[in-house]
Amino acid sequence: MNGHDLFAGIDLWQNGCLFALLIASVLFLLGLRGLSHSETARRGLNLAALGMLLAVVGTLLNKRIVTYEWIVGGLVVGTVIGVPMGRWVPMARMPERIALSHAFGGLAVALVGVAEYFNHRLELSPFDVWAIGFEVLLGNITFTGSLMAFGKLMGILPGRPQTFPGQNAVNLVLLAVALALLVILGARPDQQVLFQTILADGLLLGVLLVVRIGGADMPVVICLLNSYAGLAAAATGFALNVPVLIVCGALDGGSGLILALRMSKAMNRSFRNVVFGAFGARVQGQPTDKDSGMIREGTPEDAAELLKLADSVIVVPGYGMAVAQAQHAVRDLAELLEKTGAVVRYAIHPVAGRMPGHMNVLLAEANVPYDQLYELDLINDDFQRTDVTIVVGANDVVNPAAKDTPGSPIYGMPILNVDQSRAVIVLKRSMNPGFAGVENELFVRPNTMMVFGDARKTLAQIAAALKNET
Amino acid sequence: MECQNFLILLYIFALAAFAGYHVISKVPQLLHTPLMAFTNAISGISLVASLIIAGEGRNTASSILGAVAVAAASINVVGGFLITDRMLRMFKKKEKTEA
Q1: How many CA atoms lie within 13 A of B77 on its CB side?
Q2: Alpha-carbon distance B37 to A93, whole Å?
Q3: Which residues in chain A are closer than 8 Å to B84, comparing Cβ atoms?
Q4: Known active-site residue A291
Q5: Can you list the alpha helix ranges (DSSP code H) found in A35-162?
Q6: What is the pTM of this model?
Q7: Burial, A204: exposed, middle or buried (Cβ in 10 Å; 0-12, 13-18, 19+)?
């Protein structure tokens, strides 16, 4: 065993500490299994929390730790920042919150890698160097990439894709240079300048990978960054010889990758497209059929008239609902409709919102029972038997062009068949096209009524009009 | 680290990835956001590595790097578990009054 192995000099006490980490790994896996049902999810979370406690205690008792003052300082700062981030961040801000925590994850891993390298650079084997190199490269990409994603989601940075010619080539060169330097560093671990170049390369690559991502592609990017953060943690496990990090990293990396693949499938993108992150630079709006139809604009009262006669209603939420914080107003209107005997359900497209499951969390926050939330496959055939569909701030996921306009950038993407229902009410802030920059033919269909304005206010006005009638 | 040791770790990685794939594939779309918050919390396991770096008392620079890493990782652990719990508590079934 080399001196830099985390658990050098194994004895009985150390073995006990290692055993705690083994139990922790099993608990994490059991905890994740709990997430396959909403009834068992919280129990799973508790198992994982117990695992984390075991892992931390097992590590703190490790003989390699000789001083606690820096540890306590770090833990205090982390808790002071972590508690508010866990307790009070609003659900609508969840994508930003997740992006930020990926950045913290990347940062922690990268710092560990830097410390490891500079402490042991004269005694590292090629395998150690490669593991540490991967760790800091992925950690840095995740760090700056997630900060970029955070900035875009917060609106601090421009949300539109920022592109320049040869962007793909530049990124590939940066990646190739990093990998080449990594190989050389394996043979000459004492060459600090190589290591520093890899560090800078990773930071730059993170920025460049995310700078060209547009709003609607954010779900895929967040999943990918999740995956990178996990792989970086796994690389740390290789570098320090700590299996629990490898297990967690594999779980985290795998989860991010699975989600990214599902999201890309839901947007009809290829696997290659996802892995190389070559998305966002989409064809900008096609002004072709801009004035091919007449928009039928209605007032909230008109919408209430339609809804009064409806027996079956489907609500289709989109990112606009999150922006307008309209989930509570949606729930209020739905309850009112249910009181008058209508069946209300919600159709959730996999890429609605800015991260996987975004809409589900928002509606759950508004106390919408989750058995009223339906996935695309389960509800798509029911639109044709539905009296009224209310689209709340969704656009691309209900655009019929995905089915019948082969030239459209979103052609082939599975969409909700909203246009098949007898009447459609679309709540929208203005006539701006969606993030894909595509005109939406749904808005000019004869069975569609557009109600412009802030979705939350409009929904409240519709509810008020309904109450007056009854 | 020797080649053989590297291979053992690779075994662990491969098996964990396989087990993880099966478990995570079963998570419904409904719980995808909690899933991300959950994996985020457990990826705070890099706290374990950060603790060692911060506490092994090698030199001041290393300890400072370790302390910052401890802070960053514990933000994810503390914040991640709290927010996942908060989210999961919100998911409720309808209280069936009729049938």
Answers
A1: 30
A2: 13
A3: 45
A4: no
A5: 41-60, 69-87, 94-120, 126-154
A6: 0.89
A7: middle
Task: Please choose, from the candidates A461, A85, A99, A323, the residue with its C-alpha nearest in 3D space to the C-alpha of residue A107.
Answer: A99
**Residue among A298, A469, A314 at smallest CA distance from A387:** A314
Structural domains of chain A sorted by starting position, each given as residue range(s) with its CATH number in brackets: 1-88 (no CATH), 91-281 (no CATH), 300-469 (3.40.50.1220)
Distance in Å, alpha carbon of B18 to nearest chain A alpha carbon? 9
Question: Does A104 contact B72 at a Cβ distance shorter than 8 Å?
Answer: yes
Task: Answer yes or no: are the C-beta atoms of A41 and B87 closer than 8 Å.
Answer: no
Q: Which of A396, A404, A419, A454 is catalytic?
A: A396
d(CA A433, CA A209) in angstroms, rounded, equals 25
The enclosing H or E element of A196 equals helix A192-211
Rg (CA), chain A: 25
- A236-266 pLDDT, tens digit per residue, is 999 998 999 999 999 999 999 999 888 888 8
Structure tokens given for A305: 């008239």
ipTM: 0.93
The strand pairing partners of A313, in sequence order, are A344, A388
Instruction: Tell me which chain B residues have a C-beta less than 8 angstroms from the C-beta of A14.
Output: none
Residue in this structure with the two tokens 């990268």, named with its chain if needed: A110
